[in-house]
Structure formats: structure tokens, C-alpha cells
Amino acid sequence: MNIDLSEALDTKYGRSGLSAEVGVDAVELGEEHVLTIPNVPRPDKFLSDTFKGQEAEVLKFAHGTTTLAFVFKHGIIAAVDSRASMGVYIGSGTVKKIIEINPFLLGTMAGGAADCSFWERDLGRQCRLFELRNKERISVAAASKLLVNSVSRFRGMGLSMVRRKPL
Fold this sequence. Notes:
Proteasome subunit beta; two-stranded antiparallel ribbon; about 20% strand; about 170 residues; zymogen; Glutamine Phosphoribosylpyrophosphate, subunit 1, domain 1; Proteasome_suB-type; alpha+beta; single chain; proteasome; Proteasome_bsu_CS
């Protein structure tokens, strides 16, 4: 089976579409999506710069989303914890951290809920467009490449997402 990945590898999904200059208002994410970029010199350093000094508390982010997935003869089972924490404070105990990309792909959240939710829903949109254009389902590898290409433009800009470490 041959899958055309030319769209996933196109430079419009890479860093070339992003200007790193201060004052950039938005980056276009396709025809109907626009993402506003914070109007600060270093978005990735904003929190640490804002909360440093003698009187400011240091923000210490607690890490620890647990994701498990098992393959067995009847399919796959995925499980994720449901707590959303903000440091030592538990913001919610009922967060849905498994997001359906399409009926055959699931994504899990680890990092900032807003970032993960937005980008995984956007990936679902891109996968559906791929399916409509190519009349076949997208592979897991191609979907992963689409997600990486979409978010890599924002490296160093404070995006809060965690990637799976290679085994």
C-alpha cells in the first residue's frame, strides 16, 4: 500500500511559516484556524521571568500524567489518569485525557490541557482531510508526522505538550 505523504512533508507545516519577531499577531493554521502568539519578547520565558524575584513565588510544575496502552488479540486498551493538576493543587479529577483523533486513532494528553486538546483536535481535522483527499485512512506514522510538523513551528514559544520518549 502506497501513501502519498507529500502534504505532511510540505514546508507549510514546518518552521518556515513562523516569524520569530516580537509583535507577530497570528500564525495561520490553514484556512479557518488562526493562533495568536503572545506579544512578549520570549513567550517561552514569560512565566519564569514573571515569577522571579525576591517576593515572587517560584512556580514548580508537577509532572506525572500516566498513560498505558495494551495490545491484545481483540484490539487495544488505552488508559490514562483523569486528574488535572496545577502544581500541588488538583484542578479537576475528571479530565478526559484520551482524545479521539478518528475512529481508528486515539491521542492522550500530557502537558497543558488547552494545548494538547487544541492540537489533537486539529490533527483530527487534518486526518479527515487526508482521508477525503486520498480515499484511504491515514497511517499512524503519517498522522504522527502531521502532528510533529504542526507543533514544531512553535518550538521555544511556550507550548506545553509532552512527547513520548523513544523506547
